[in-house]
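Box S1 | Example of a co-folding query
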Amino acid sequence: MYEDLEKKVVVITGAAKGLGKAMAERFGKEKAHVVLNYHTENGDHKEVIKTIEAAGGKAAAIQGDVSKEADVKKLLSFAVDTFGTIDIMINNAGIENEVPSEKLTLEDWQKVIDVNLTGMFLASREAISYMLDHGIKGNIINMSSVHDRIPWPHFVHYAASKGGVKMMTETLALEYAPKGIRINNISPGAIDTPINGEKFNDPKAKQEVINLIPMGYIGKPEQIAACAAWLASAESSYVTGLTLYADGGMTKYPGFQAGKG
Ligand code: NAI
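Box S1 (continued) | Returned holo structure for NAI
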């Protein structure tokens, strides 16, 4: 636990399930004030709010599509109206779909880029602008992926978006370091969330993924939430522009284990 996170205002996109939910709940345990963005109106966010409040945090939620500029502006205004400021912006919302690249439509390409890259840019820009106007030495955390460096056939739009997020993070980190705004990137490996539901329900497909992980197991959302809490806290006060690979060693060339190669 990080005492300095208490009462900090944290905005998290895509916070009703998966990694967003785990981070929202972790910041609830830190007794932060959490603003959840959710995309699909199915009520899942209400459970997350209850969990945060039961842990001693505060929470509020607003629906929105991160790829729409007006929705992103509304999200940030909602955070300020509800809890008075913005200290930490976590750009988590993301999508993927498998298509061989020669069949990938412009529409599919654009959708993934719009949500995964443009959405993170829009919320970063709005948060930075707010922090500059109010002299806040804030914190931005982007959720990239090991596929910001591991090529991924059939997911070219996803890999391109995540490579873009990594370079966007590094560029913004450099640009705003003099203002004390820290901007970092978390790149998870394979984590047990709904995005992987279908794959991990198939034992063969799941084992194929595990074979790519030197630590030998699929990561848990809480392990990524712990990285986000550390990056948001003062314990990482000299860290900016980092891409933190939380991947059980997936980016370390597992094919070379045990003297192979
Ligand atoms: P998920 O599918 O469980 O959750 C994604 C969330 O994003 C959902 O809450 C969804 O409603 C939201 N979302 C989708 N489109 C949106 C939009 N237009 N506007 C606002 N919200 C939208 O996926 P998961 O695993 O929790 O992924 C979270 C992030 O982590 C994504 O950026 C993903 O690319 C990244 N990631 C996940 C990995 C994993 O193995 N689970 C590995 C590497 C990266």
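The helical segments are 18-29, 44-54, 69-83, 106-133, 156-176, 197-201, 203-210, 221-232. The mean pLDDT is 98.
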